[in-house]
Structures are given as structure tokens and as C-alpha cells.
Write a structure and sequence with these properties.
CATH architecture: 3-Layer(aba) Sandwich
Shape: globular
CATH topology: Aminopeptidase
Number of strands: 9
Length: 187
């Protein structure tokens, strides 16, 4: 059994479920969506390679009756030394180097087929607000975000602020970055 599958995931599952409960009024008012049936599931895919207190790879999902409505696979990007060049590149804003803090790369985002636009927006808003507090930067390959429904893309930009969703190019790969709206990279 993975170490973080019990300790870390239990802690964040309880925390996220409580936060999800606090979002119910907002989901109903903004999206006319009753989210009282939603459950948070967190799966540890791989423990930390370098002994961190959080896993290296994990998934956060919102489910209804065991059916995932939306999920995101995240990678603690600073775990691997091979990522150092991209981390240093992402730390540079307008030519000034600022440490990222905690950075996560989304490797895959999945939205259940058949959801209506308001449902996508509601579950995307809820999930994005939950993962927002994990790190100062969430980023991923632009092609992964581009394959998502427009409702999800718009929701991420709404949550992270009007200046979020910047596309950056590193070694021929385009990444889209969502900086914490309260973090130093947002200024």
C-alpha cells in the first residue's frame, strides 16, 4: 500500500469534502446545480519519489453514485530533477526569477460524456476551487486543455482570474499556466 494513500489522501478527501459542502449554495445560485450528491475521491497513483509529505502522482475526482463526473490527474512537478529546466523557466516572470512554491502539472483532465454545459461548469468550478489551494501554479500541456469542453476552459480562467491561462513555450512544447490569483506571479 502506498504511504500517502492512507494519510495524505484521507486528510485531503475529508478537507475537500467539507469544502465541497461549503460550495453548495454557490453551485445552486450560479449554476442551478444541486451538488449535494457529489463525493470527492482522491487516488494516489505513485508516492513521492524523494520523500515528500505528498504523493508524486495523484487523481482528484468528483463522483455521483460512484460515477466520476470530472477528474484531474496531477503530478508534483518539482519531484524529478529532469523537470528542473522547465521549473526554472516557469519561475521566470517578465525576466525576474521568483520561486514557484508548489507547482502541479495536470497530465489528464476527464469530463464524463453526456453532461450539459451548466453541469460541466458547476463540477469544473467545484473541482478547480478544490485543487486551487494545492499549489501556487497549476499547468499542463496546452493540447490537454484544448481538448476539454469550452465550459471547462472558461471556468478555469474564471477561477484563476482574467490574466490566467497564459501559454508559454518551452523546448517546442506549449504549456498553459494557471497562477494562483493571490500569488506573486499574478502581479
Amino acid at each position: 500500500m502506498k504511504v500517502h494513500e492512507t494519510e495524505w489522501s484521507r486528510h485531503f478527501k475529508a478537507l475537500f469534502q467539507a469544502r465541497l459542502g461549503d460550495m453548495q449554495e454557490m453551485l445552486l445560485e450560479e449554476f442551478f446545480y444541486d451538488g449535494t450528491h457529489l463525493k470527492v475521491e482522491i487516488g494516489v497513483i505513485q508516492d513521492s519519489i524523494i520523500g515528500r509529505n505528498s504523493p508524486y502522482l495523484f487523481q482528484v475526482a468528483l463522483e455521483h453514485n460512484g460515477r466520476p463526473l470530472i477528474s484531474v490527474h496531477l503530478e508534483d512537478f518539482e519531484e524529478l530533477e529532469r523537470n528542473r529546466g522547465l521549473v526554472e523557466f516557469l519561475e521566470t516572470v517578465d525576466g525576474t526569477r521568483m520561486p514557484l512554491g508548489q507547482a502541479y502539472k495536470f497530465n489528464k483532465i476527464e469530463v464524463a460524456p453526456g453532461l450539459e454545459t451548466n453541469e460541466i461548469k458547476a463540477v469544473a468550478q467545484a473541482l478547480t476551487l478544490l485543487i486551487h489551494d494545492l499549489g501556487e501554479l497549476i499547468f499542463g500541456e496546452e493540447v490537454e486543455m484544448a481538448r476539454q469542453p469550452l465550459a471547462l476552459q472558461e471556468t478555469w480562467k474564471h477561477v484563476y482570474g482574467p490574466d490566467s491561462g497564459k501559454v508559454v513555450d518551452f523546448n517546442g512544447i506549449k504549456y498553459i499556466r494557471f497562477d494562483d490569483a493571490r500569488g506573486w506571479h499574478s502581479f
